[in-house]
Write a structure and sequence with these properties.
The protein is mainly α. It is 70% helix and 0% strand. The radius of gyration is 14 Å and the shape is globular.
Length: 102
């Protein structure tokens, strides 16, 4: 069991930039989280197949910090289902956006 705990990674912990981005978002006011989502959601949607968007819209879990706000949940799920390269690119944009719009 201890070995399993050591090997488990959340989807955003695979890349340090994405992990930093999610950490910053988690500790950001909800209004700013919504601004980030509004700023980048279309870009993520444009890069995903339609079936992923449908899957995200039907997700019902409510156990993660972002599941309790519909905008954040959709945005984070879209990011989660993006390619690794897209996750990294979007994460850099999120960090920059938040730093530039303090």
């Amino acid at each position: 069991m201890i070995e399993e705990l050591k090997t488990y990674q959340r989807w955003y912990d695979k890349d340090p930039i994405v992990s930093k981005c999610v950490s910053i978002l988690e500790n950001t006011a909800i209004v700013r989280q919504h601004r980030v989502a509004a700023f980048l959601m279309d870009e993520i949607i444009a890069q995903l197949p339609d079936d992923i968007y449908e899957k995200v819209m039907t997700e019902q879990r409510k156990r993660r910090w972002y599941d309790f706000d519909e905008v954040c949940k959709i945005f984070m799920e879209l990011l989660r289902h993006s390619s690794e390269e897209t996750k990294k690119q979007i994460s850099v944009k999120i960090i920059t956006f938040l730093e530039d719009n303090v």
